[in-house]
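User: Before I run my own analysis I want an independent prediction to cross-check against. Here's the chain; please return only the structure tokens and, at the end, one sentence I can use as a sanity check.
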Amino acid sequence: MAMPPSPGARAEPFEDERHLIKTPAALRDMSIAIVAQTRDELLLFDDALTPDLYNSSAFVDAVRTLALARSAPCIRILLADPRPSGRMHSRLIELANRLTSRIAIRQLGDDFKHRTDAFLIGDRRAYVRRALATRQEAVADPRGRREARRLGRDFERMWEHSEATVELRRLHL
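Assistant: Structure tokens:
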């Protein structure tokens, strides 16, 4: 399910279903579309929850809808450095604090601190990936099962070596 792009947004076809994302609006719209089509599992890896992307009400609403549609935990968020997320008012962190049985947040372990990318995976079949987490340029594929599964395996390895983010939980009590 693709969402219409925002005015001025550019998501150019890149190969079959892959898109080269060049603007913040296109990145946000594609991320929301992937969350909206996700039914079972959402995996998110970022350096510190990019505010323009993950703090939009449309993105948080899509995550809330997914979280409430499932009885088991289905959303995992892995942050390289959760401190910047805690310093800003993050709707996604607030949602995670209200839905602790559905949304898990962890901090990346030291073994993986060298990662500079960021990605979002829906049901291990759709993804958005930024080669540099600090940039808005991305590649997205709503039908990219092979790459989504590869990124999912990377996420699982990083998750196994991650730790709970007590700081974020305390900030919103």
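Sanity check: Residues 28 and 53 are 5 Å apart (CA to CA).
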